[in-house]
Records
---
Amino acid sequence: MADCLVERDGPVMVVTFNRPERMNAMGGTLLAEFLGALEEGRRDDRVKAFVVTGAGRAWCAGADLQAMGSGGGDGHSRRFAAVDDIGEVGRVVLAMHHCDKPLIAAVNGVAVGGGFGLCSAFDIRVASEEARFATIFIKRALAPDCGLSYFLPRLVGPEKAAELFYSGRMVDAREALALGLVSKVVPAEELLPTAVGMAREFAALPPAAMTYTRRALRRSLDGVGLADQLAFEWAQQKACLGSAEFQEGVQAFLEKREPDYSKF
């Protein structure tokens, strides 16, 4: 059985991490299949947004320590560290960072360690009331990875990030909402409909403008100067101003109707 299940809900690609017996830890072929789904959705113009959730009671429990502790029975420990200078999971995080389509995590359960890192790379996180988060690395004699040391300070600020890293403690869904780790918390049965509904709303918006918006947001995380960012914004704005999408938006405004971006 696949370690990632992929289905379409209209313009939304829904990916489910599918190793519930291992709490969706990053073993087997989970990372490779997720990267493949990202690449497939990125190339497919019919896909406008992604939603990623987990099977069972976890979103992703990070590294598969059970496999690593037993000598890396499925080769996980070797693959996790030795793919290249950033590791296999690093390649996935970079692919997410450079994706031009919105990425929403529907966090159904625990997201800890590398799973928390992967989760932090999404644009938006919607959590069920059962969701929990922990850096946990320090408790396993490990340093942060999977991009968490990059994203977490940007989400909660450096001081709070330090406290979460140094303690490794668990954060429940309500605290995650208060900290700004997630955008909303909903009952478990409403999680996937809420996340997919949000993705469908994004999918109905002009795709080129969405791409440019996401690029500007992601670029701003990389410490560029204000003048450089202003130049980047203006170059993208000029592209928007000359687009058919913009003409449709203006025409719809003049005709007092909702714009239809489905043809783009």
---
Amino acid sequence: MKQLTILSGKGGTGKTTITASFAVLAKKAVVADCDVDAPDLHMLLHPKIVKTQNFKGSKLANIDQEKCVKCGLCREKCRFDAITDDFKINAFSCEGCNVCVIVCPVNALTLKERNSGYAYISKTKYGSMAHAMLNPSEANSGKLVTLVRQNAKNLAEKENSDLIVIDGPPGIGCPVIASVTGVDAGLIVTEPTMSGIHDLERALQLLTHFNVHPFVCINMYDINKDNTEKIEGFCKEKGVEVVGKISFNPIVTEAMVNGKPVVEYAPKSDAAEEIRNTWKSILLAIKTLNPRI
């Protein structure tokens, strides 16, 4: 089984658009949306949920009002101002750090698990999908990403699928690390802007650190061909293969507005053909990689 994570140094580069088209082209692959803080792959793949899991990622302080002597020590030591003047817990501010429990002289405080979000196993017309949604203001999104990936792996094993396509979160933080750790390859989607080049460098450093084989796709390459040449030169210098270049095309936005992957909405468009060519290059390249799981 091979795992491919599509990532980018920032949001808005076309990562999810490309992932959705890959889901159409892959046919039997399991798809995972690991952007649990702001998932949007479901808007293009329209999954039907078959299983829902509660995710308990953090804990919430609780005050036993009968024990509490209102000494104020918990309020004094709480760095998140999560305890109100009338000694109640503000659930949106509490980080579950346990300091209040430790300092309370009468043991009036405890930590209780709370529901932090939901993980889903779904069916789409293109195959199985694992995804999730973190509740607003909740932490531990990296932990929820790990659950999504485990669900995807279980689905792939059950269905004898030899590929998992992962739509990773933007950036290079904790949830991104959780989405690339242990995968076989990472496809960095970038754009020919100065920030795009900078974010490509950061994403490439992340993949190198975790020993993940990198590939690059330049989206909207024709909006600044000079910067595209800079990206190609940088990749050549680093020994990274540019597996695809996708031109700017309003049909891509039109497909998203209509809630469909572009290769399905406009299969004869230049963008669809370029995405198909990128997918063929990816498949050919990852076949030569030794699987890590």
---
Amino acid sequence: MKRLIATALVLIVFYMPLIAVTPACVRRSQTIQVIAGENFYGELVQTLGGPHVSVTSILSNPNQDPHLFEASPKIARAHASAQLLIYNGTNYNPWLSQLPTSLREHRKPYTEIIVADLVGKKQGDNPHLWYLPETMPAVARAVSTFLIQKDPAHKTDYAIRLTRFIDSLKPINQKIAVLKQYYQGTPVTATEPVFSYMAEAIGLTMHNKRFQLSAMNETEPSAADVAAFEQDLRTRRVKVLIYNSQASNMSTQRMLEIAQQSHVPTVHITETEPDGKTYCQWMLEQLNSLQKALEGQVK
């Protein structure tokens, strides 16, 4: 029912005639209009485009479960005027399918950048691609190419901004290398596979993968998977619990409680970039928290 109401509202707003165009709207139209499915991709575009782009990020609330997000009339309006649409792919953006077909048929031509395609991932793969170290450089280069093609007059500015952004990612790669040197092979577990790509890059050994998939897909984990997870925590077979604080349920909260009771260090991570943080700051804070946990500091 909620989806039917949301779709109806989208249709009403989309076909509502424009009454006036203000000077602010005129100034806005001179920039390249961008819709980002997730706020970390939106931040990337804003960093690369500077004053030449206007970016709207759809998923931007770190306190909201991304899996429960639904499209709105505001999203429909922004989508209708966007010249670039950049989103994650691998079925992480179901709100796209909520937009009416008529919107797609009548809107102006636009460019899509699907992040999954850039890093060779397909539907069914782990969708949390922003934790894959190769992702952001690939996205940055694709966005920069688009901006230069769309606005060649500012080619030099875009090239400088791309170089600076790629350089800003070096501390993340350096931290990953340090953690891999000292903790490769260390057994850890997680409530969801949000951090899995980063864990793989570090070389951590991940336990309880079936439980994590159940949590991500919002299905009930099997009794055997629950028992195995609890046993890992109670006997401290795993050194760290990685907990997705943005999307939790009774099963994941129970694992958090058992970890705390068993003095297993816990790292809280999110799917959405926190307010006031850059992508680099966000990743480094989580990696630093992971390092403290691997050192045995209980949280």
---
Amino acid sequence: MSQFFIENNFLKVGINQVGAEFASLQSVEDGTEYLWQADPKFWGRHSCILFPYIGKVWDDKFQIGEKTYHGKQHGFARNMPFEKVLLEKEKAIFQLKHNKKTLDEYPYKFSLLMKYVLEKNQLHIIYEVENLDDQPIYFSLGAHPGFNVPLKKNEKRSDYSLEFEKAESAETLEITDGYLDGNSRDVFDGKNTIPITDDLFDKDALVFKHLDSNFLHLKNSAGEKIWTFTFEDFSYLGIWSQNQESPFVCIEPWFGVADELNASWDFRKKEGVVELGVGKKFSCKHSVVIY
């Protein structure tokens, strides 16, 4: 598997050609690895890109027009090789375009650009979808980066917490077998902090819609900020880890969400889906600052 690197005086970032998945986020100063290293015992990926849909589609199929398409969780982009468009010292761009394989699974002609840009101790990840079709296209788009939590051998994951920019009232949308089940529950209790307790993910991911905050911090037991993750303008935010023993936490900004149980198969009416006109471009960005 080809892997490419960008680097400055603060951070070194590794990016896999397959899925344009960023696979390493290291401190240049002390070599600390902040990104989850895909141990298959827990979760065998680093930071997969979710396109053209988020989560599961009901019964692994969906309808567009008169045709039924089949697809697995989170779409095909994460498993496909991207073309390297640009590789500079502090910037890399990769592209996935429609091809015979994608058109068999998803009928629209598109370009998906992934841009990785370093700015001092911050990594910007920029997504750009362009409609190359002669009709509007419909898609969801999201990120799935996993971060090492804890970072030190003498720590536990439960020594850490997530502190949001603002106190939140949004409830997490509950999941059953990978699908939204129509229920929700409060995890904020009017506060801005979620302790990463051992049982936090016993009911699968936390999924929030329209949070007031634009960023969150990972903090250790001493209250020190480890990193700040910015997700401004995204419609949804997922937070996930595999089980109580998994030493990582994923922060997942999304445009789109998994289907509900027994959902309609009309992909164009899927919750959170983006409609993009002919010749138009859609872009979004999330960033992480390392302290």
